[in-house]
């Protein structure tokens, strides 16, 4: 029997994954008409985290286990020749050799031939986006400078896209890489994804989706100071706690009309240092998958100039500091209540924030800088 194709979209984080997942979820019926099956998602925005966890042999908890079993049953029963699943949690999960082996073995046991779909991004912009996202979701509270410097200087594994080539080669899998550039952002990532899975974007409307806008300096400043004040950086949060804190912060800032976007912790000099640290690995990756130098693919990205707006780097005026102080105080009350809720602090593998996020940067342990914004 000829194996069907299973396109496994692995992200990484902050490369339009939410937009892609939202499109897949909203377009399931249309995709089915074109012979592409997308299983039901276990999340509001369309990601297949539970399916991925089940295929990796993880403990999901009763509710997510049932959802994953139902989705996998539907995959087995569909007559479609192509299946698409998407989870940026694989960014971290597949770096574990045992889980990668289990995952690919189970995919093939379903008579599917896996193909990995990856969107590499120039690391300077990527680190900037990852940091602001990690702070607003209550995963990190160290300074941007400490985070970026340590990640780049250590050549952290998540920054090296060549690791995906090694993974694909080890399991004899095709790696489909599409660059996530400034032009991709301008055009929209969904059409690029559709081309990667051999579907014409012209068959679909509403592909110019923009979801999950990045945080701004005020949002980062509030979340970071709340975590530091309450010692969350030392003790960490459970997944349910972090998600509740994230939601509370978004709701609070929205109601107060304080929500912002466009965070930047980078300076141009820092960006160039990061790019230099990773140039050799980037070029090796680009030559292998695109037969071109990295600089030719990411020309606009590596020439971008940066002006930081992080409040620890560029202290804001008195009025913003006053609003920040009030916001931190009010959010601390709400976060304390979340931390006291026993239903959110359950000790279980499925409630482990690091495992649920799949974000490898959470493994970089750095001390919090003593310098704080005077609010």
Question: Key features?
Answer:
single chain, 375 residues, Rossmann fold, 2 domains, 5-stranded parallel beta sheet, disordered C terminus
Can you tell me the number of structural domains? 2
Query: Radius of gyration, rounded?
Result: 21 Å
Largest sheet: 5 strands, parallel
**Total number of beta strands:** 5
**Estimated structural class:** alpha/beta
Number of helices: 19
Spatial strand order of the main sheet = 2-3-1-4-5
**Sequence of secondary-structure elements:** EHHEHHEHHEHHHEHHHHHHHHHH
The poorly predicted ranges are 360-375
> What fraction, in percent, of the residue positions are helical?
40-55%
Query: What sort of overall outline do the alpha carbons produce when their principal axes are compared?
Result: globular
If you had to describe this structure to a student in words, what would you say it looks like?
With 375 residues, the chain is α/β, with parallel strands linked by helices. The protein folds into two domains: 4-120 and 161-203, 3-Layer(aba) Sandwich (Rossmann fold), CATH 3.40.50; 131-156 and 214-355, no CATH class. Helix content is 52%, strand content 6%. The chain contains 19 helices and five strands. It has a five-stranded parallel sheet with strand order 2-3-1-4-5. Helix 7 (123-136) packs across helix 12 (217-230) and helix 12 (217-230) crosses helix 18. The relative contact order is 0.16. Residues 360-375 have low confidence and may be disordered.
